[in-house]
Design brief:
The chain has four helices and no strands. It folds into two domains: 65 residues; 40 residues, no CATH class. By secondary structure, the protein is mainly alpha-helical. 73% of the residues lie in helices and 0% in strands. The N and C termini lie far apart (107 Å).
């Protein structure tokens, strides 16, 4: 255990400096309130981030659940309504069945027949 004289002198001077400063170092009067307020602010920030993350997880879970529910096939219940192609076939059939030779009356009669066919389908 050999120490150099320079390092021993440095340690002693540093310790003497610390002993002499013991009466100079004091906490300010507002130190505790500042520390408490900083802790409260950080706690609120943490809680906000936690709740935001929880809301994001819940939202993504609901989205995933809704997507899986929408992918399931629909259960058939009640009357089925005609599709666009079947409605187009109704119009074509109505135009062919029009007995009048005047073009304007043929349109009126074909729409009348179409409305009758649609009414029958809706009553099912």
């Amino acid at each position: 255990m050999t120490e150099s004289l320079g390092s021993t002198f440095e340690h002693e001077s540093i310790e003497a400096l610390i002993r002499s400063a013991k009466n100079y170092v004091r906490a300010s009067d507002d130190l505790r309130p500042r520390v408490l307020e900083t802790a409260r602010v950080r706690r609120r920030e943490f809680q906000f981030k936690w709740r935001l993350g929880l809301a994001a997880v819940m939202l993504s879970s609901c989205g995933w659940l809704m997507a899986s529910v929408l992918r399931q096939p629909a259960i058939e219940s009640g009357p089925t309504f005609p599709t666009v192609t079947s409605a187009g076939q109704l119009v074509v059939g109505a135009e062919v069945a029009a007995p009048s030779t005047d073009a304007s009356w043929q349109i009126v009669e074909s729409f009348t027949q179409l409305r009758v066919k649609q009414a029958r389908l809706l009553r099912l």
